[in-house]
Amino acid sequence: MEAKFHFPDPSVIKEELINKYPAKVAKKRGKSIVINDPETVPEVQANVRTVPGIITQRGCSYAGCKGVVLGPTRDIVNIVHGPIGCSFYAWLTRRNQTRPESPTDENYITYCFSTDMQEENVVFGGEKKLKVAIQEAYDLFHPKAIAIFSTCPVGLIGDDVHAASREMKEKLGDCNVFGFSCEGYRGVSQSAGHHIANNGVFKHMVGRNNTAVEGKFKLNLLGEYNIGGDAFEIERLFEKCGITLVASFSGNSTVGAIENAHMADLNVILCHRSINYMGDMMEAKYGIPWMKVNFVGAESSAKSLRKIAEYFGDADLKARVEEVISEEMPKVKAIIDEIRPRTEGKTAMLFVGGSRAHHYQDLFTELGMTTVAAGYEFAHRDDYEGREVLPSIKIDADSKNIEELKVTADPELYNPRKSEAELEELKAKGLEINGYQGMMKQMERKSLVIDDVSHYESEKLIELYKPDIFCAGIKEKYVVQKMGVPLKQLHSYDYGGPYTGFEGAVNFYKDIDRMVNNPVWKLIKAPWEKESAGSLEASYVTQ
Ligand code: CFM
Q: What is the pTM of this model?
């Protein structure tokens, strides 16, 4: 397909992005800014430390562990061991929704639990305070599980959150207490926290309940955190198709479901970056294959449902999936026909965490828009180039910091759900079994792929391409909008969503239409359009 957008010479753009940096920095950033070629995907430098002084979009390891992976499970009491700020900023800030089965069911998501570490605890140790906090939470709520999250000072002073958790677990008897060494500095980004969280959830939760689950087609949904209700829409589709969702990791999920997850026959992975470890470990221990799916985009949702039906290889399920798709698609098509003439040919840039910068390109394609530049904050090379590059990824000191669990087949529970031959057959049918192609093969030639984009680079990109929409987060939103370009938050969805499945696609089309066709943006003069552009301006208060 011919690109609708006429790409400017990307090497000139790349030069513009880095030429103001000191030579050493320019050299380093140059490796993370690549010109895409979907046929021969170039190597992207990813998952390396951000250059000090550069304004990054990234967060910390604690954010990835507590906020991202464990946070959305409603009946775990998540205690943050550390000063209050870390807890406060992880409290309800991700819009992950949950739906308890009854009004009396446990739901701690709205709470903010912290040990509120003070100077005294930093100097003399915080374990005593932590144990008191665990006891207090237990006495108040009697939860099934309490998880402890370490913030930076905890690692610095050497509090042993694991020993404290073990001691309290034994003392309490009917409450699963476990800790995470997910101090903010554990890795170069949130990504380290995802891995630490996967290890802990696998060790302390999965496999604790061997009760068989009823249902013919049983799967787990991995890497779906129910932001803006995304998981609800996927659950609706599964239910319509007759697919049984055993556990979701971890949007709209519960401790009980996760403990029972190994009874499923398939893991489908949405966000590869945050949870691929869980897929691999469950495959090794229980023989459950995983498959990459994408429920962002109407076409992708249809494709993913078909892949699931193909995996189970059941004629009735395949027929039911086709029925559901033909029930759902007409309303999507009707909206697309109305909106697409207004969005066709427009351009988008996406700079988000570790998977949405890829997935949301499908929705823009459905709107006839071109993604001119995209990148992840903290993904690894496999999320860009595809999992086939995994063996060639160099393990550096930062990644060595994070434990790689040695997982072997469970002597009793290991049961390969598909034989090698069956898996090969499914792969031949185009199912990405235990695989992920990454973002770049789907992007146009000459588009830019940028890892850990800096604030300066984003401003330059906007100035040079003047995209019709920029997708990022709250930190970027108002700066970008002051430049006359609407910004769609793809972390929190602003106040919108869900954006998954068919209903979600319709929501997204409408929101994007409203944003890119709003005349208000033309009334704003971007800094470089003002007369004084070029001279340095500053405002300060004088007496
Ligand atoms: Fe996965 Fe996520 Fe994302 Fe992510 Fe995140 Fe997120 Fe994200 Mo914000 S788990 S990598 S660590 S899809 S919180 S729900 S939106 S950066 S692109």
A: 0.96
